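Record pair follows.
FIRST:
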Amino acid sequence: MVLERGEVANSWRHERWDSLRLLTPNWLSRLPGHRYDGPDPNGYMTMGEVIDFIERFADASHAPIRTGTNVTSMRQTDDGYLVNTSGGEIRCRSVIVASGACNLPTVPPFGDAVPASVAQLTPFDYRNPDQLPAGGVLVVGASATGVQLAAELVRSGRPVTLSVGEHVRLPRTYRGRDVLWWMEQSGLWDERYDQVDDLTRARRLPSPQLVGTSERTTLDLNALADLGVEMVGRWATVRDGRALFSGGLRNMFSLADLKLERLLITFDDWARSNDSEDIVEPPARSAPTRVPAAARWQLDLRSGEISTVIWATGFRPDYGWLDVPVVDLKGRLRHDGGMVDSPGMYALGLPVLRRRKSTFIHGIEADARDVVAHLSGYLAATPRSTGGPTRHGTLSAQYE
């Protein structure tokens, strides 16, 4: 059985802003036996289209879903797990934790020191520019979410300041193809977790600076600067009502540009070695990220210049319901390619779970096949209980 705390595609219904589109092109949207079949394969699904896509997959797969069923706790028993839910107890031999890595927005502790006159929102709260009070907006974080919100807000006529930390710069298209076509064709997305040099770092990388638009435009820091967004460094702390920023913008920009150059060289090498030069355009490079002439080191949050802070500083999983000792001190699930450090427990939908593409819609199928194959072997080797009427020999997966 599949447990869902709300409706099918619940997060897409209730925890996304209005204009959000998938970062991946429609032709890349696929699940087992189910793929995009609409008229715009090179487009990017809207929020409503993603909901419909997932709903249709749930119907086609006949998944035994229990919606409106919130898991409140789960503990290990002698022969499996006891799962307490808002709909009663479930006993099962095996569990797949598929609640994802983005259950809660991450806000730094110094957010408490922001003056009360400044509204604070996370991407879970934000819907559109009209909901914000009049005045300037400080967007914190320059990954996919941060750059998209900064662009939307500045286009609405608001003054926008973007606090930039570590980020991954990507062009929307390269040599005439979507950059994610290159990731797919070159095999980079299929790199396994046990082949990655620094797995811990790979799993913590910020999402790339991409946006899905009909124009297939690149949304990097240069594009934001052209729109009028002011860049400042990483927000370090708040002191006496002032936001203090680091002075490392130049280094941040150079590091992102260097990583991008290395990636594009990898794509070029793949095209040459696979006789694909004739199906793509000639190599080209974007201009280096422009460093502001005089980036501010501090901003007085009491002056009225900034009326809203939006924390686009990432997300974290929520395992508060999990009464099994499989979560490390940093709140991450301990697992080896989806096999959790507890018999009969598995995970899906986490960053670089088994491949670099694990958290993308099209990446779940290969991970799921590997995890379910291991799970099937575990069940075959584990005697089935003949316990009471609440005991099930079935798989319980939690989707949040």
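SECOND:
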Amino acid sequence: MTGPEVIPHWIDGKRWDGASSHTSPVFDPATGEVTAEVRLASTGDVDAAVASARSAFTAWRTTSLARRSAVLFAFRELLDRHRDELARSIVAQHGKVYADALGEVGRGLEVVEFACGIPHLLKGSHSEQVSTDVDVFSLRQPVGVCVGVTPFNFPAMVPLWMCPVAIACGNAFVLKPSERDPAASMLLAELWAEAGLPDGVFSVVHGDRDAVDALITHPGVDAVSFVGSTPVARHVYETAARSGIRVQALGGAKNHMVVLPDADLDQAADAAVGAGYGSAGERCMAVSVVVAVDPIGDELVARLRARTERLRVGPGLEPGVDMGPLVTAAHRDRVAGYVEAGLAEGAELVVDGRGLRVPGHEGGFWLGPCLFDRVRPEMSIYRDEIFGPVLAVVRVSSAEDALGLVAENPYGNGVAVFTRDGGAARRFTREVEAGMVGVNVAIPVPMAYYSFGGWNDSMFGDTHVHGPEGVHFYTRGKVVTARWPEAATPAGPDLGFPTHT
């Protein structure tokens, strides 16, 4: 009998077993079974990927914008054609429900469509006759070899926030996806190759922290994009910057949803439950704190409870399922530990998802939705990013208190306000300390032609992901000053500082 499939790397346009025999198990979260092993890269594997990317970059950077766009359009069509296959691979290794996985692919596809317009996005500027017979023009050029280190919770969407823009700008890209759900990245690699992308322009290197550290300190790497927890984001940012590498590192979140007294409470409750428990809470934009502004706390919690208790938990491909399992047993146990801590610290557990059993899938990594009320800011379930199906309700006396609560939280990723008052909403969006704000929108993830990113401990670096800032991150500016004088008798050298006349 043979063992589980071994998932290799993708280097030089083909599957690459590499030098290391070390592997990590890949689970089906709904059953708990090991369905594959993924190779973990050695330093030699990282060197091979970067060398291949560096070699490919030399030719790709000079490839015409028309040709690059043609590859992007072909990739877009292939991605659309294979969206079902990609979504099913996400369900199989991450555990999220099929509709959620399909939505993830769709949001990634939007970034590919944005990158298809790269000829327009890379247009420079030109000023004629800034001085006598002198013109000035600007342009943006690719930075070189770019690395993307991406998390388990969006194995397709987050890589697609990065690689289409980087590649369209003329860079080569090395992806280090999560070792927990690596199949999606391998399918992306195959689609890039089928779209006509030259070998080496897109590579996939699987691995753990050792592989990440090798990439973010590699002398052949020019830029690093990261999405993950705040401690790791800080490490990636500081380490890559010390190595002289351009870096954007998106960290964790504790996203608040503020419900003002005039809000439609049914609409707010629907939004909070969807945003809190979708993908089992394993989203960087998940709502994890509902801030109920007096006097609507009791009414809102009653609505949240009723909706939470109706949620159906089960395998992601099963019809009618609202929420799947967590990604690993260790993560499930970690999240359950926070539920225990919340009880110990005095919060009121309104809905208890512990002890959930799914018939026929008893070995899966299950934890049902958990709803806490009367949570206080000093509690660990409020302070920490839990990254699971745990929703905490904090009660405050006024909108000013709600703004203060958000401002005092160290994170600043996303926040939402639910209200019918336009003036209150305008004040909230202007004053709140967060990078992305929703008004009656619980998950304010921007469209691809805007950029995604938070503030404070949710973002390290000054350039957000995809959209116009993504193009800026994956290119360097150059300004050219040119003189084309008419033939004349030389006037001799002028040692004075140049002036414009």
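COMMENT: The chain has two domains: 5-251+458-479, 255-439.
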